[in-house]
């Protein structure tokens, strides 16, 4: 059945986009780490040359810190733009692919000779900006990358500091280089998490927008929460797996997930911020199934203990699978 296959494909398309984005981010962090190291080595060389007076040494240290801070600001700026760019691509491609999938399933339902065409408006700047401005835990992407920048500047400065303690041998200094790697790795992990959350958020918003437009054209949907069937799924998300959305008086779907009202995975309705909201959003891998005419998928995929994805009955819930397969 088309819709099931297509909607899973759309999600997978964004997951593979993420893999590619992560590779590019890793490259950015690697370059930045190398630049930081070369700044440090330049500094070391300049002060071990001998005959350096104290005032000049301090100036060089200030210069070093300034260069490192600039490098980190540059890195987080580039990461921000890379994530923003992929956010927009994920949003647009989900919107159009979802529209196409809905159209296809409407035609399937209507019969072979049908050529029903949905009136889907093209996405404009304003819609993209509105999607981009949706907050997670009260924070915009800009806020989150700013936080990363400040933390990373602090960590790298500290790591560099370890390397310029007076009286250290070159061997001790080299051992201390691992602190710079550690600081950069922490920054990269954090950025990866932000990228994942943003791109999958864009996917959810693109899906929501396409569905809203299709509803305006008269298509009716059933909405079902679909959690990932593996042992990493949060209990709160396993609890709503396979449940239908509650509709408000205007027909807008939502679920209450761990006390937070959400219109889709990763999309809190109230956007009030706070850690409860962020805790339900970050690293979530759930999907919302938008089912025209309420046709439910007959199968879904689940991960076995051995790490293999297998097809299981479409009615199986996350709770049932996790209990059966993982004994939790
Ligand atoms: Zn989830």
Q: Could you give a quick summary of the protein structure above?
A:
With 328 residues, the chain is α+β, with helices and mostly antiparallel strands.
Care to describe what's here?
- The protein is an alpha+beta fold.
- It has two domains: 1-219, no CATH class; 221-328, no CATH class.
- The protein is built from eight helices and eight strands; from the N terminus they run αααααβαββββαβββα.
- It has a four-stranded antiparallel sheet with strand order 2-3-4-5.
- Helix 2 (54-110) runs parallel beside helix 5 (170-216) and helix 4 (141-162) runs antiparallel to helix 5 (170-216).
- It starts with a helix and ends with a helix.
- The mean pLDDT is 89.
- The structure holds zinc ion (ZN).
- Residues 227, 237, 265, 284-286 line the site of zinc ion.
Question: What secondary-structure arrangement, pairings included, does this model have?
Answer:
Blueprint: H1 2-48, H2 54-110, H3 125-132, H4 141-162, H5 170-216, E1 221-226, H6 235-240, E2 246-247, E3 253-257, E4 260-264, E5 267-268, H7 275-281, E6 287-292, E7 299-303, E8 309-313, H8 318-326
Antiparallel strand pairs: 1-6, 2-3, 3-4, 4-5, 7-8
Helix pairs in contact: 1-2, 1-5, 2-4, 2-5, 4-5
Residues 227, 237, 265, 284-286 line the site of zinc ion.
Q: What's the order of the H and E elements?
A: HHHHHEHEEEEHEEEH
Helix content: 55-70%
Bound molecules: zinc ion
Give the oligomer, counting copies of the same chain as homo and different chains as hetero: single chain
The largest pleated sheet is described as: 4 strands, antiparallel
How many helices does DSSP assign? 8
* Average pLDDT figure: 89
Q: Report Rg.
A: 25 Å
* Strand arrangement, major sheet: 2-3-4-5
Q: Structural class, judged by helices and strands?
A: alpha+beta
């Amino acid at each position: 059945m088309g819709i099931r296959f297509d909607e899973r494909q759309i999600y997978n398309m964004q997951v593979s986009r993420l893999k590619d984005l992560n590779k590019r981010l890793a490259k950015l962090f690697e370059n930045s780490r190398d630049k930081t190291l070369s700044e440090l080595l330049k500094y070391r060389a300049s002060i071990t040359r001998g005959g350096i007076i104290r005032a000049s040494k301090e100036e060089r240290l200030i210069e070093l810190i300034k260069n490192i801070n600039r490098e980190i600001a540059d890195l987080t700026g580039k990461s921000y733009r890379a994530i923003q760019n992929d956010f927009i691509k994920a949003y647009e491609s989900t919107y159009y692919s979802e529209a196409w999938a809905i159209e296809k399933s409407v035609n399937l339902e209507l019969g072979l000779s049908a050529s029903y065409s949905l009136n889907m408006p093209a996405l404009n700047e304003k819609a993209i900006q509105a999607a981009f401005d949706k907050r997670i835990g009260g924070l915009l992407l800009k806020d989150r990358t700013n936080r990363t920048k400040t933390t990373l500047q602090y960590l790298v400065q500290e790591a560099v500091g370890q390397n310029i303690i007076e009286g250290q041998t070159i061997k001790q200094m080299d051992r201390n280089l691992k602190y710079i790697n550690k600081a950069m790795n922490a920054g990269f992990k954090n950025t990866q998490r932000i990228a994942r959350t943003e791109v999958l958020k864009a996917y959810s918003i693109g899906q929501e927008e396409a569905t809203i437009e299709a509803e305006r054209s008269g298509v009716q949907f059933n909405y079902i929460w679909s959690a990932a069937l593996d042992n990493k799924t949060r209990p709160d998300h396993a609890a709503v797996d396979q449940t239908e959305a509650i509709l408000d008086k205007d027909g807008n779907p939502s679920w209450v997930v761990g006390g937070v009202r959400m219109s889709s995975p990763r999309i809190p309705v109230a956007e009030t911020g706070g850690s409860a909201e962020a805790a339900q959003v970050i690293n979530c891998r759930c999907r919302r199934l938008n089912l025209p005419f309420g046709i439910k998928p007959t199968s879904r995929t689940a991960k076995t203990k051995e790490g293999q994805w297998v097809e299981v009955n479409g009615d199986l819930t996350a709770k049932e699978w996790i209990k059966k397969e993982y004994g939790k």
